[in-house]
Request: fold
Amino acid sequence: MKKFMMAFVLAFAMVFSTFAGVNAAGSKTASFVLKKASKSGVVLSSKIVSKKGVAAKYNKKSTSVAKALKGQKVVKAKGVKLSKLKKLSKMVRIYRNKKKSSKNTKVTLKVPNLSKKVKKVYALHYSAKAKKWYITKLTINRKNKTVTGKWNRLGTTALVYTA
Reply:
């Protein structure tokens, strides 16, 4: 019984700390919640493990997306200008907790601060394998306040938008 209780408390603490960390965003950059993924074991965490320096810069209120990515290799979606991108969320880590490939994983995220002024939403995500940042266009479902897209590799991620 003690082992069960300890396991429950530990599991609760892990889930709560992740939730609290991801929801610690400012007023303009709110949290998002992992709603669905095409592969099993996909989770969201506020603990960044790769590109910590870029994430720290990005998560500062006063830093623009372009400034946070200065000097980084970035593969942009067609027609995207870094200077036009605005923050929609804090930077977090989306990963697969099983030692299996996360390549080409379709992910749906619930975004509570998805407003009408947001025209296009992109996932800004880092591939440690390719050592590049990718900006991938996401599909918006305004009714459900969700965005869906395919990550070439899961990892350090933020949502950005154009107005």
